[in-house]
Amino acid sequence: MAKIFRNPRLLLLSRSPNWSFPLIGVNSRSIETLAYEEINSSTNDETPKKATIFFLHGLLGSGRNWRSFSRNLASVLSKSSSSPIGLKSGLWIVDWRMVLVDLRNHGRSAEIKGLEPPHDLVNAARDLADLVKSRGWAWPDAVIGHSMGGKVALQFAQSCGAGDYGESTILPKQLWVLDSVPGEVEARDSDGEVEKVLQTLQSLPTLIPSRKWLVDHMMSLGFSKSLSEWIGSNLKKSGDHETWAFNLEGAGEMFKSYCETSYWPLLEHPPKGLEIAVVRAENSDRWSPNVVQQLENIASRRKSEDEGRTSVHVLPRSGHWVHVDNPKGLLEIMAPSMTILPLA
Q1: Secondary structure of the chain in HEC code, one letter for each residue
Q2: Which is nearest to 49 in space by CA: 91, 79, 87?
Q3: What are residue 3's DSSP bridge partners?
């Protein structure tokens, strides 16, 4: 799941960028594509170089969950790539474009009728490719995915490397997999909270009397106040009642695919030119000792020149909600590597 960070503290540049926020609901072309929000650090179309970063949220979340963090990241990257060091190294990038995607069955994409089943990671990743093609964009330089979104990012890179999206496909240079276990998720490795939430929501009426009613009801069932309030934030007005801003049944199918799918082979042998960076939150309850050891073994293993690389980072003082619990620490991990993205 994802959570909204409501109190951003922007990292200001010496010369502030002109933020641009066009909200796009549904593409008008023949291919039904995902809803998204685009944030640009510059409105200058003659920028020498541009970089595109996709943000993928977690289960029952939406792209807006990453607004604050994406703005902060774009600020830091713009400041770094406009510095004398950046200019000397030929890495001058003024325009960083952040694309905050609503995955199928989530956010505004839940209203799109053309995103047909099966609702699994393969199709969730293909939706990204369809979005790129339908908009006529360059392929993303980096993809950042949190929780379930982390596995969608891995599937996207795997499909790009396999040529599943056509000959014009370009593999991302970086994947950031944020507190997302790359292998199969066994019941014994989880406290079952996500399953309990899904089961509870499925037992509720389609139309909810009010947000307060929902929060009180969730808390009466033993869920925490913060989780109950976050669930309530996913409601939208429907006449005199409230209804979900996501497709609950489709989201449940996506969670099932998330649990059943493993990307260990991709981490062990990434395609050449791809860096997979896995960020594990220090206080997250998602990681078993065996999984942590397996990750460390992969990261320490020497790769051949024909392969990419996998790195592992630990985010201190953070639980699963990495962009909420320690956004500054997450920026400090990500920004140095992203500043030197090899761009065409």
Answers
A1: CCCCCCCCCCCCCCCCCCCECCEECCCCCCCCCCCEEEEECCCCCCCCCEEEEEEECCCCCCHHHHHHHHHHHHHHHHHHHCCHHHHHCCCCCCEEEEEEECCCCCHHHHHCCCCCCCCCHHHHHHHHHHHHHHHCCCCCCEEEEECHHHHHHHHHHHHHHCCCCCCCCCCCCEEEEECCCCCCCCHHHCCCHHHHHHHHHHHCCCCECCHHHHHHHHHHCCCCHHHHHHHHCCEEEECCEEEECCCHHHHHHHHHHHHHCCCHHHHHCCECCCEEEEEEECCCCCCCHHHHHHHHHHHHCCCCCCECEEEEEEECCCCCCHHHHCHHHHHHHHHHHHHCCCCC
A2: 91
A3: none
**Are the CB atoms for 146 and 284 separated by under 8 Å?**
no
pLDDT for 276-294, tens place per residue? 999 999 999 889 999 999 9
pLDDT (0 to 100) of residue 80: 75
What single-letter amino acid sits at 45?
Answer: D
pLDDT of 136 over the 90 cut: yes
The model's confidence at residue 343, banded by pLDDT at 50, 70 and 90, is: low
ω into residue 118 within 30 of 0, thus cis? Answer: yes
Q: What are 5-54's pLDDT values in tens digits?
A: 333 322 222 233 344 444 444 433 346 799 999 998 765 655 556 789 99
Half-sphere exposure of 15 (CA within 13 A, CB side): 9
User: Please, are residues 69 and 323 in contact by the beta-carbon 8 Å criterion?
Assistant: yes
What's the farthest any 2 CA atoms get from each other in the chain?
A: 61
Better pLDDT: 340 or 311: 311
Q: Evaluate if residue 252 carries a pLDDT over 70.
A: yes
- Tell me the average pLDDT of the chain: 84
Do 319 and 281 contact (CB within 8 A), yes or no?
Answer: yes
Other Cβ atoms less than 10 A from the Cβ of 187: the count is 9
Contacts of 269 (CB under 8 A, 6+ apart): 303, 307
